[in-house]
What does this fold into?
Amino acid sequence: MSDNKKPEKITAVKGMNDILPADAPLWELFENTVHSVLKSYGFQKIVTPIVEDTALFKRAIGAVTDIVEKEMYSFEDSMNGDALTLRPEGTAGVVRSVIEHNLVYEGPRRVWYKGPMFRHEKPQRGRYRQFFQVGAEAIGFTGPDIDAELIMLCRRLWDDLGLENIALEINSIGDAAERQRHRADLIAYFEANIDQLDTEAKNRLHANPLRILDSKNPAMQELVNNAPKLLDYLEGESVAHFEGVKRILDHNNIPYKVNPRLVRGLDYYNRTVFEWVTTELGSQGTVCAGGRYDPLIESFGGKPTPAVGFAMGIERLIELMKQAGDMSEPAACDVYMVHQGQAAQMQAFVLAERIRDAGLDVVLHCAAASGPGSFKTQMKKADGAGAAFAVILGDDEIANNTAAVKAMRGKEGAGQQASVAFDDVVDYLVGQIVGDHDHDHEHVHYHP
Ligand code: ATP
Ligand code: MG
It folds into this structure.
């Protein structure tokens, strides 16, 4: 590049974020925790593509929803003209997959997924255009027991993450016939108060009046609060199902609030709906939303199969973890390998591999733009990396077939240095690090 003009910088797409190394330990901790909780309830992982046919989402989510109306990243495949969409949520792909691979015919299944979702929303705190969800779907189960189990799984996750202020709201939206009767009364009620509806509500009045109940417009809150409640329209089996969910939650001391206004934005939900909400994230306080969607699989041409699931927003949960936990300690490694001279560098590679064979984490010093770095520079790097030990190789060590091992951290012994025979270094480190009974070999220092 000979001319003086600096090349223009390219930045990330608006609303799509990098997850930087400083936050990586927290994401890893979240992921490990959620994986182990899901496993402890017998859920198996499923991975579906990020891109699907646009028709899939239109059908699964419903045309008169925020997502399909205005949030989807849809595009035409420039090679063949296919109508494709970056997935805005995970359930549609999972349902397509279990039908396509006949998994629904093999009996009930518990599956979970994780990955990026895409919605063209106005970026703000807790709301992004690319965001991550982890979700679970229990397919083929009819009763209220599985609904309660999914809720209890979430509760266990919050506990394991040390998150305290997440409250449960539940509701039942009944079945299609019950919603139909409620809908007629709801439309009549809103028509009688048409002057109080905002434009969005007016547009939804006949297409999806239930969604008006979800309105966040402060001017409409009183109107919405006094609207006919779907819960009052439930009969027989729907009532029994909802009572069944509540009975299990009560028996297990899971507190909840019945929120009659809680509805799901997606068309195919029925019966149980739930949300986990916190007041600690400003206005984007819902960290997890779930519910039953018994009619969906049949509407996709599959054998009629009941299902229930949830999805949680990982960014919002990470934000809560940041607020709850002390992440001040840097991510650390066991050993930083310091070396000077070519012979020492060669031996450093050999020794680093041997230490890794023993299960320890090693950062080997490598040359930077400024050069290979003096001993002093390298020791600073060892400190910055949060290493427990520096293993030092220079001319003297090579001549004597030894390594200098310096303790960098710990109550006693920080700064202490020992000369260890080259072949004994691995045992020495293992003894110091793993032998130390309160060393849990966990590098993330997170104290909720
Ligand atoms: P909202 O009413 O806030 O738009 P939603 O009903 O669209 O929520 P769901 O489709 O139920 O949300 O998604 C489940 C969870 O995923 C949400 O509770 C939230 O935690 C997270 N989520 C949804 N949209 C976003 C987004 N744009 N950015 C970050 N997280 C999101
Ligand atoms: Mg939304």
Summary: The pocket of magnesium ion (ligand 2) is lined by residues 66 (CB under 6 Å). The chain has 15 helices and 16 strands. The first helix runs from residue 24 to 40.
